[in-house]
Design a protein that fits this description.
Distance between the termini: 54 Å
Number of strands: 0
Helix content: 55-70%
Radius of gyration: 21 Å
Number of helices: 16
Structural class: mainly alpha
Shape: globular
Length: 348
């Protein structure tokens, strides 16, 4: 029996159950244990670089090796992060300190052997011949599935206008006029989402479908980007499984079927991280520039996009502390931030 595959599918089942219970009960207590089990497995697989072959060779040895100092740090990091979710409606100050503690423990997680790129499968040879023969077909199935679940009954699910959709749609016509009044009602977001809506409304006409179209496309493309980035650092099989799971994540799927700036938050982080890994590996300045430009799009999204520069600053600090020999040069880091400022500049 292939225990790795069994554990993968068990994690998927637990993930779907956790979302179902959360939607039904609106109580995080019932899904805490289930959700943390999935997160532990996913992040441990990333840190330990477990793929299909190395895990099944000696399952007992791999299982016992989980209980190390790094895993204790990981558990504490997840505990403080998830525990902070219970205070979402109580105290923002408590959430802030709990997330700071979570980040501190996460910062000092050091993968084994003090390697970074050498432990990643960036050479593209991390699969066996049998999987390579069907990989293109499976990626096609993934692409079809991802866009099908986003465009099926697109104009009626969810019904009518949800959230700020009505006001956003009204803003499209304001932006096309010669005079633009002050945009109130909490919609003073970056304008990229508005102009995307204008573009598709000119093609399909002014309707619910037209101003949701950009969200569905960006949501679908972010899943495909996630697959190729995950494929570099794990394996095609693992990347494919988690891409399917990622594509049907409840909140992400809802954002993909509604007009709004939230969905734009997903793809910049994914593309920028993948490009940055390739840039560090190949030491090409234009890759650092492209990674910075991809990260800059995060500021064109909802308010959470403002955390984008801190995410990559945190990663550079982590490289400085633990992987100084593989840390990008000051020149390449400046090129990264230059690309970031060029794209995010209009928002800043």
């Amino acid at each position: 029996m292939n225990w790795f595959k069994f554990f993968i599918f068990l994690s998927i089942i637990l993930f779907l159950i956790s979302q179902f219970l959360f939607i039904k009960t609106q109580n995080l207590f019932y899904v805490f244990i289930i959700f943390i089990s999935l997160l532990l497995f996913a992040i441990v697989c990333f840190i330990k670089n477990i793929n299909l072959k190395c895990f099944t060779k000696n399952i007992a040895k791999n299982f016992l090796s989980f209980f190390q100092l790094n895993i204790i740090k990981l558990i504490l990091s997840l505990f403080f992060a998830l525990f902070g979710m219970f205070f979402l409606k109580i105290s923002s100050l408590i959430i802030f300190f709990l997330f700071i503690l979570s980040g501190i423990f996460l910062l000092f997680i050091i993968p084994e052997k003090q390697k970074i790129l050498k432990d990643f499968y960036l050479d593209g040879k991390n699969y066996d011949i049998s999987f390579k023969e069907i990989e293109y077909f499976l990626v096609f199935i993934l692409t079809f599935f991802v866009f099908f679940v986003r465009f099926y009954n697109f104009d009626s699910i969810p019904p009518g206008s949800q959230g700020h959709e009505g006001t956003i749609a009204a803003s499209y016509k304001l932006l096309k006029s010669n005079y633009i009044p002050f945009i109130s009602d909490g919609l003073d977001w970056p304008t990229w989402v508005y102009y995307l809506g204008i573009f598709f409304s000119d093609i399909f006409g002014f309707s619910v479908l037209s101003y949701r179209f950009s969200s569905a496309i960006i949501g679908g493309l972010s899943v495909i980007a996630f697959y190729f980035v995950a494929r570099q650092i794990t394996s095609p099989f693992t990347a494919l499984i988690f891409s399917f799971v990622y594509s049907v994540q409840e909140v992400f799927l809802i954002f993909s079927r509604m007009a709004g700036p939230h969905i734009i938050c997903f793809i910049p982080h994914i593309l920028a991280f993948g490009l940055l890994l390739q840039a560090i590996k190949n030491n090409k300045w234009w890759m650092f520039f492209a990674a910075g430009m991809a990260a800059g799009f995060g500021l064109h999204a909802y308010w959470s996009g403002r955390t984008v520069p801190f995410i990559f600053l945190f990663w550079f600090i982590w490289l400085f502390l633990f992987y100084r020999k593989e840390m990008p040069s000051i020149k390449n880091q400046l090129i990264f931030w230059l690309g970031f400022l060029i794209i995010s500049g209009p928002v800043v």
